[in-house]
Amino acid sequence: MAFGETQPATSAAVSDFTEHGRHILPAPVDAEAAAALLAEIRADRSFGQALFLDQASFEANPQYTGVNPRPGRNLLDRFADRLGFVEGSPMVTGALDALLGQGWEVLNRKIVCGVPQSAIPGWVKDKIGDDLVNNLGPYVRPEYRDVTYFYGIDFHQDLIDFKDRDADFVTLYCYLHPVTRADAPLYLLDGSHALGATVFPHDLRRDGEAWLYGDRAGQEVACAQRILTGETGFVAIWHACTLHGTQPDAADHERISLRYLIAKRPGTKAAIDDLNAALKGPARLASTRLDLAADGSPQIKGNTVNRA
Ligand SMILES: O=C(O)CCC(=O)C(=O)O
Q1: Is 80 exceeded by the pLDDT of residue 10?
Q2: Which residue, of 35, 133, 226, 272, has the greatest Cβ tally within 10 A?
Q3: What distance in angstroms lies between residue 88's CA and the mean position of ligand 1's atoms?
């Protein structure tokens, strides 16, 4: 899939990616269209406790994998004709053309919800504790798994879900309403992409306002933490090796965003290739994470981003 009309290359996207591993659009995309989409999503779904399984049903058959949106079960597909404000935005297509070359394709797109504490049943809170990846999919009723629900996620690279694949794709995130410090904004570590792909959980130490990030192979970079608060229609794009995460939503309402993964067309040459060739580490890994047991359940505690 491609977004349609392409635009002239935007070199700010490439220089931002080279230096920081991310590009933040200079202005929001159409905020009215974003708010209209949000209203339709909220009319379709209430993001309260009714999302969740009861404890007995969960315990009877815990499912830790296959709990995210997938083809045929993706609420955003219902709103496909409302996405022109992102997919047709010249700022978006220009940045993607510059980074990925023409003919890039959407690997997937979905709605992501930061669930507020008030909506999470006590038994779920007890279970997730200090887990690293609080994707609430396992605890959500199957019919609502057409959205990804988070209660925070530790610093990670989006390559985490793609073992044996090059970092030849980017993530695009769009806020559908204003996101303040209380609304689980993304925390992004500027320049962390430079070490290339490393295994989750990552080697991170706080150093004053910055983070020291190591690749466990002798290299270390100091990264500034950038908190992505933003207005309705705010869009950020980041490299698949850029560390980012969220703290639990502290507001009394959910945070709703759109998340796209967008890849270079196979066999083409683009700026992302030069960028990946200049990384100080690999652009792909055979094994991307160590935090899960064989059934997909979390087996490591000690979340870092919650201490940011
Ligand atoms: O929306 C969130 O809370 C986390 C999203 C995120 O980090 C991701 O989708 O990779």
Answers
A1: no
A2: 272
A3: 23
> Letter for the amino acid at 151?
Y
Atom 10 in ligand 1: which residue has the minimum CA distance? Answer: 158
Contact indicator for 124, 59 with CB cutoff of 8 Å: no
194-235 pLDDT tens trace: 999 999 999 999 999 899 999 999 999 999 999 999 999 999
**Ligand 1 midpoint to CA 200 (Å):** 15
Tokens of 265: 């067309």
Give the distance, in angstroms, between the CA of residue 2 and the centroid of all CA atoms in the same chain.
Answer: 20
Give the pocket of ligand 1 (CB within 6 Å): 112, 114, 150, 153, 158, 184, 244-246, 257, 259
Q: How far is CA 94 from CA 39, 73, 211, 241, in A?
A: 28, 30, 31, 21
CATH class of 11-294: mainly beta
Q: Encode 103-131: b = buried (16+ Cβ within 10 Å), e = exposed.
A: ebebebbbbbbbbbeebbbeebeebbeeb
Structural domain spans, the chain: 11-294
> Which atom in ligand 1 lies closest to the alpha carbon of residue 257?
1
